[in-house]
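Tokenised fold entry reproduced for everyone:
>
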Amino acid sequence: MTTNDAPAAAPAKAPAKDPWELPDVSGLVVGVLGGTGDQGRGLAYRLARAGQKVIIGSRAADRAQTAADELGLGIEGADNAECARRSDIVIVAVPWEGHAKTLEALREDLAGKLVVDCVNPLGFDKKGAYALKVEEGSAAEQAAALLPESRVTAAFHHLSAVLLQDESVEEIDTDVMVLGEVRADTDIVQALAGRIPGMRGVFAGRLRNAHQVEALVANLISVNRRYKAHAGLRVTDI
């Protein structure tokens, strides 16, 4: 066999990507729809405190600006449509009752945006909190159905609004379950969660698995009531 007849060497395998190698998101603008509510205000405060540019959105621009002024840290306020247009990433933190109506009205403004849904469809009765059945399967899947031109993910469901807004709390000791259809998008959301000291974003599957993540909040509410706590979640062995 001549040298030219020698079999070609097998191509070298590319090294496996480190699952914790995440993109730099420090320059992205984050909008928070429902930013005047407890969860939205808390997320806006923590992200701005970590150095992220944040815009609070509300149905009324003056209400959003008042909340932004109260939080400080360079946070801006705007009506929901302007907040969506000016942001690279948009966190949906509106009440479940207004979820569909809000997103329907913002479909064009959210086109092309990375949307992070953190809404938990819950009901309450004398026995406590319980998960509601959603026709699309979950709030995140409803968002994906209503926003066909957006890149919808789900995250930030299990955070205590009390801890998020408490200025004396330096770190939020919790993992954030991140779900989505495109890994590049979930990587961005994981990186955003990781900007907040003590927090870690963990990939947790596709949007079809969002229901149980949203529903778990009902269990955490029961935990918190029983133990007078602000419980979060940690995933072990990763």
The chain has a mean pLDDT of 94. Strands lie at 29-33, 53-58, 76-79, 89-92, 114-117, 122-125, 128-131, 151-154, 174-180, 199-203. The longest strand covers residues 174-180. The chain has one domain: 24-227.
